[in-house]
Amino acid sequence: MNNSQLINTILILIGGGLLIYSISAEDVSPYFKIIGLVVIMIGLYRATNYWVATKDDHTNNDEK
Asked: Rounded to whole angstroms, how far apart are CA atoms 63 and 2?
């Protein structure tokens, strides 16, 4: 697994964990939901940019 993919996965998991914690626990600051959502969106943005940049990598291998 590429390092950037690992970072994206970790960001998505951390954001999801924050959202799940803020939903399941009582008397939690709403900032946990905001931070969790922002972290998930950053991870997803980075992941989709990586996927777009490497979407044609498999065609280069087939041509050789």
From this structure: 23
